Amino acid sequence: MTAPTEFAELRSSHLGVRVASSPAEIDAAQALRFRVFYGEMGARADTATRASERDADEFDAVADHLLVLDHRLGDGPDAVVGTYRLIRRGAADRIGRFYTAAEYDLSPLLAQPLELLELGRSCVDPGYRTSGTMQLLWRGIAAYVFIHRIDLMFGCASLPGTDLVALGPMLSYLHSHHLAPATIRPRAVPARFQPMDRVDPHQVNARAALNDLPPLIKGYLRLGGFVGDGAVLDEQFNTTDVCVVVKTDLVTSKYSKHYERKRTGAS
To answer: Read out DSSP for 140-206?
Structure first.
């Protein structure tokens, strides 16, 4: 089967998902990120960020920006209600590193002869935080992974706040049940390493800890995702980060079947 050569927009009723196609759409994604991360989640803005009201950095220039659009609001920048930043290995090479490298030693991943994709800066407008929107985002990621033949996805995923005592059960659950195999296990850089095994596994209510995890992390785990060793406090964004690693076999299998049905006209 031949993969499609471009990522056409996927639709679900009035919502669509596709990669940003203009600087104005990327700017809209950065504005949404600012509203969510700084206005809602309490991230600490420097002077330039506060003045621009944009969450932006050097990685945006080499990334692809996945967008959820509400076409009732328009077809371009005004319609952006969700976003996800996608950075492939070749794009990271143009800067010299992945964003995640500031928090994790990625040597085990970089040593693999695989096509890598870093996921990050995910956010959705408060009015659109439904399972339908998240499913649409995942469909977009699946299409992107399929088209670009990605083997492994990874990135920093956040737990809210920096209270390691309060987050202890969730971190311990992840460490006990979802630690990545050594060959693909990132480790928090020494200066920022926070142990994840903070609570005796026998004292952790696994079901409760799983239920308390943010939806995004639960989504990664449903795809068979793993976590790296060590958590990292991100004081700027008021979060505690873990590094998630996902082999794309399950993602590409589902999308491949979906694409084949679309191609043949089967239902």
So the answer is: HHHHHHHHTT--EEEEEEEEESS-HHHHHHHHHHHHHH-BPPGGG--EE-GGG-B-S--S-GGGS-H
